[in-house]
Amino acid sequence: MTDFSYPGAVGGTLHVVATPIGNLGDFSPRARAILASSDLIAAEDTRHSGQLLAHFGIQGRLLALHEHNEAQQSPVLLHHLQEGRSVALVSDAGTPGVSDPGGRLVALAHAHAIPVVAIAGPSALAAALSVGGLDALPIQFHGFLPAKSKARRAALTTLTGLVGTHVFYEAPHRIVEMVTDLAALFPPDRELVLARELTKRFESVQRMRLDAAPSWLAADADRQRGEFVVLLSGAPAAAAVDALAEGQRVYQVLESLLSASEAARAAARITGASRSALYAWALGRRDGHGEGTD
Ligand code: SAM
Predict the structure, then answer these.
(1) Do domains 14-122 and 125-235 have the same CATH topology?
(2) CATH number of the domain at 14-122, please?
(3) The CATH homologous superfamily of the domain defined by 125-235
(4) Which of 45, 138, 238, 267 is deepest in the core (most CB within 10 A)?
């Protein structure tokens, strides 16, 4: 019998359990105790999680919960929870629900007053932020950008005026294209951090000016291998204020030609202002509460 001397899973509760992003030493005793005592373990990939559990001598009843079956499987798991069974949710690595499946099940549990408990632990997002040294708020977490270049560039264009710290996840086969797009669209003096293979054997954290990054990556194919979190410093606060003022000016030119949301989107694309900030401003203005800049 497994005894990790930590309280086990509670019936009728959904435990959202973080698992290692590389180093198995990061698998917390509490996470292991919860998994060992859960009635059911919902896993993104049952084979992958089965290997992790086997490594730690944990037996569990695994059920698949991934992006393609989350809609059908979540009500099934809800039923188990309502019957008083304990359910643990894991993804392949890191924290479920952070660019991983799980959000739908968690939302359903909340909607039915099922307790949801975080078994906190590794996440590539927090790990990269902790070693990147870019601490400006807000943290703008974007997960994965679109895979196709045109859509990726369009998405990035909407971010250039935002303050804070941008965080992206990226796959190794797209890291060069992605960093090239960043360098083409953002000012050259932005700070970039490439956090690669965190907690693993070939872990590396490199911080540099954005304009230096494409050639740094190109200089050695090994620098392009593995899993990446990319951090990018946001716009200086003063520049963001300027961009918003400019966005408001352009919006006012466009508003008679387009709907409010289209005009906000176009003005944001043209000026680098935040689309959501512009849209909120436009709605307030329409309702008579806006603070025009003119
Ligand atoms: N939910 C996970 C978490 O909390 O870390 C992230 C899942 S997402 C599908 C996988 C992405 O996270 C990878 O493509 C990579 O961008 C990032 N990632 C995961 N493990 C990493 C590691 N050890 N080092 C750097 N990035 C990692």
Answers:
(1) no
(2) 3.40.1010.10
(3) Tetrapyrrole methylase, C-terminal domain (3.30.950.10)
(4) 267
Sole residue written with tokens 């293979």: 197
Ligand 1 atom closest to Cα of residue 22: 23
Binding-site residues, ligand 1, Cβ < 6 A: 21-22, 91, 93-95, 98-100, 123-125, 169-171, 195-200, 227-229
Coil, strand or helix: which one is 219? coil
- Side-chain half-sphere of 235: how many Cα atoms within 13 Å? 22
Say how many C-beta atoms besides its own lie within 10 A of residue 294's C-beta: 6
User: So what's the pLDDT on residue 95?
Assistant: 98
Measure the CA dihedral 148/153/155/160, to 10°. Answer: 160
- Sorted by where each begins, the domain ranges of the chain are 14-122, 125-235, 238-286
For residue 229, report the distance from its CA to the centre of ligand 1, in Å: 7
pLDDT in tens, 72-107: 999 999 999 999 999 999 999 999 999 999 999 999
**How far is Cα 162 from Cα 241, in angstroms, rounded to an integer?**
10
In angstroms, the CA 256 to CA 136 distance is 37
Q: Which residues are CB-neighbours of 261 under 8 A, at least 6 positions away?
A: 279
Q: What percent of the chain has pLDDT over 70?
A: 96
* Chain position carrying tokens 């890291």: 175
By residue count, the chain amounts to: 294
Ligand 1 atom nearest to 95, measured from its CA? 4
Beta pairing class for 228-233 and 191-196: antiparallel
Residue 69, CA atoms < 13 Å, CB-side half-sphere: 11
The pLDDT tens digits for 96-155 are 999 999 999 999 999 999 999 999 999 999 999 999 999 899 999 999 999 999 999 999
